[in-house]
Design a protein that fits this description.
- The chain is an alpha+beta fold and 294 residues long.
- It folds into 2 domains: 2-65; 74-277, no CATH class.
- It has 6 helices and 14 strands.
- It has helices at 2-36, 39-65, 95-104, 115-126, 179-188, 226-239, and strands spanning 74-76, 82-85, 88-92, 108-109, 140-141, 144-145, 148-153, 160-169, 197-211, 218-222, 243-250, 255-258, 265-268, 271-277.
- The strands form 4 sheets. Strands 3, 4, 7, 8, 9, 10, 11 and 14 form an 8-stranded mixed beta sheet that branches.
- Strand 12 (255-258) and strand 13 (265-268) form a beta hairpin.
- The chain is globular, with a radius of gyration of 23 Å.
- The model has no long low-confidence stretch (mean pLDDT 88).
């Protein structure tokens, strides 16, 4: 009975916060900015407040009140909601081999999402300008954001691009004690016979722009079937001659559910493609020729 009462109290609190945010936005914030700015800019400022401050704050309160039980085969957005499925894992001797193999396969590493790259990203999307190192939004696995992000642009701007994020799997609990580490170690380690680094990844194809239905923020639209992008990644590694072997591993149940954008769904077959990368030998650096003594 007490648990039922607690649930009702949580829902009433969320309802109160939603109504309070609505009242403040439309009867306090908008009249204030409308009195200082032209009408069009006041609308933009109100949208910015609601989408990037007000609604994200509500989402954090909701996540605190109703802690989700995330499955280990999904990545998590900054607001705590499950997003892209993990659908690929790369095995390499070390980080250098991983980075070099992806580079040889045509993938470009994304810039870190700081202020300057983010502003350049906005500019390139709006004006359809190229930015091959465009940053990614931060998604979380093992309680931390991606270690690396890679992309292959489609067209003249980051509106359309192949892209994949990677998180390194720790080899022991001492390296990372997140609860999902054990799931992936148990699932993948039996396929990796000697010391190798394992990187789990989420590959998905960006397609234009959309609005997130939870907070109204502008984001990339996606191609629903994530197996298409996973296969593109594998094919690019194979074509570059850096792929030693690949095997399908069942990691969970098939997924077909709503994604972040309005009207978007995301589909995954429940398999992870485990790819072993060949040892990458660095090209020889030519030695400068010695000048003959005069």
């Amino acid at each position: 009975m007490s648990r039922h009462i607690l649930l009702i109290c949580k829902r009433l609190l969320m309802l109160t916060l939603v109504l309070s945010l609505s009242w403040f936005t439309f009867f306090k914030f908008f009249p204030l900015v409308d009195s200082e700015l032209p009408w069009g800019l006041a609308i933009v400022a109100t949208y910015g407040f609601l989408a990037y401050i007000g609604l994200p704050a509500l989402a954090r309160v909701h996540q605190a009140l109703h802690k989700p039980n995330h499955v280990p085969t999904r990545t998590i957005a900054a607001d705590g909601w499950a997003v892209d499925p993990i659908n690929v894992a790369l095995v390499a001797r070390n980080e250098r081999d991983l980075l070099r193999a992806l580079k040889r396969a045509g993938w470009t590493q994304a810039d870190n999402k700081t202020l300057k790259p983010s502003l350049r990203m906005v500019y390139s999307v709006i004006f359809n300008k190229p930015y091959p190192h465009a940053p990614f939004g931060n998604y979380y696995v093992f309680g931390r954001k991606q270690d690396f992000g890679f992309q292959i642009p489609l067209g003249n701007s980051p509106r359309h691009r192949h892209h994949v994020r990677f998180w390194r799997l720790g080899t022991t609990l001492l390296q990372d004690d997140h609860e999902h580490q054990g799931f992936w170690r148990k699932l993948l380690k039996r396929f990796v016979k000697d010391e190798r680094q394992i990187w789990v990844g989420a590959a998905i194809l960006d397609r234009g722009l959309s609005l997130r239905w939870r907070n109204l923020q502008v984001d990339h639209g996606i191609v629903s079937d994530t197996s298409i992008e996973r296969q593109f990644l594998v094919d690019s590694l194979r074509s570059a001659g850096v792929l030693k072997d690949a095997v399908d591993i069942k990691a969970g149940e098939p997924l077909h559910t709503r994604h972040q954008g309005f009207g978007e769904t995301i589909i995954a077959d429940g398999y992870v493609k485990l790819c072993e990368i060949k040892h990458q030998i660095l090209p020889a650096v030519p030695h400068p020729q010695k000048k003959d003594a005069a």
